[in-house]
Design brief:
The chain has helices at about 40-50, 60-65, 70-80, 95, 140-145, 170-180, 195-205, 210-215, 220-225, and strands at about 1-10, 15, 25, 55-60, 85-90, 105-110, 125-135, 135, 155-160, 185-190, 205-210. It is of the alpha/beta class. It has a single domain, classed as TIM Barrel, CATH 3.20.20. A hairpin with a 2-residue loop joins strand 7 and strand 8 (about 135). The relative contact order is 0.16. Belongs to the HisA/HisF family.
Length: about 230
């Protein structure tokens, strides 16, 4: 099972995402035992000192809410780390992505919270994020009701569990893995420690997005090597 660090960007800094209330997110170095700065390149360097991660997930929270973006900083990061792959959610629609040129190590993420009517992504080279909050699907309900439009890789993002230290939504993830065995599901939200990772691996989750458990030291180098 693949472990993918998450980088949430807001106001020019990497922030600590907790509970899905983005207005309250603070610079990550205030609570991190891993980083002493919230500058994006520094955070990535700290993650890579911990473990040779091959993939990172970036959420440009300003772009998602339509209040600016971090395009320049992200482009610089993509250039600096050409051998790593970066999954990017910046609120773009599929229509926008079809006219956008991107670097080969950047893979776009379509998040249902910022989309309108569902479109077929079955053969698209991107990732779909099924977004949930307070046990409700965000965005047009057709995204959840139409698995035939999903691409191969699908994130199950439970926003209110992000940074919560409450554990993942095992029930929802297990159901998706059982109902759609042809998909590669990615867990996002609530992962605390190796016990959570072991249970997610057992139910068939292909990869996990996480940040808090890396910053607080719950998952160290020795533990990450097991996955």
């Amino acid at each position: 099972m693949q472990i993918i660090p998450v980088i949430d960007l807001k106001g020019g800094q990497v922030v600590h995402a907790a509970g899905g209330d983005r207005s309250r997110y603070q610079p990550v170095h205030h609570t991190s035992s891993l980083c002493d700065s919230s500058e994006i390149n520094h955070v990535v360097a700290c993650f890579l000192k911990l473990h040779p991660f091959q993939t990172f997930y970036i959420a440009d929270l300003d772009a998602i809410r339509g209040d600016g973006n971090h395009d320049e900083a992200i482009d610089d990061l993509l250039s600096q780390y050409p051998n790593q792959e970066f999954w990017l959610d910046n609120g773009s629609s599929y229509q926008d992505l079809t006219t956008t040129t991107r670097r080969s190590n950047c893979k776009p993420v379509i998040g249902t919270e910022s989309q309108r009517l569902p479109v077929s992504l079955k053969n698209a080279d991107l990732i779909l994020s099924l977004d949930f909050k307070h046990n409700r699907a965000l965005g047009h309900p057709g995204w959840l009701e139409s698995p035939q439009v999903w691409p191969e890789t699908v994130v199950v993002m439970t926003l209110d569990l992000v940074g919560s230290n409450m554990g993942p939504d095992f029930e929802k993830l297990s159901k998706h893995c059982q109902d759609h065995p042809d998909k590669r599901f990615i867990a996002a939200g609530g992962v605390r420690d190796i016990n959570d990772l072991t249970q997610l691996n057992a139910i068939g989750v292909a990869a996990v997005l996480l940040a808090s458990a890396l910053h607080n030291g719950s998952l160290d180098t020795k533990t990450l090597q097991k996955f």
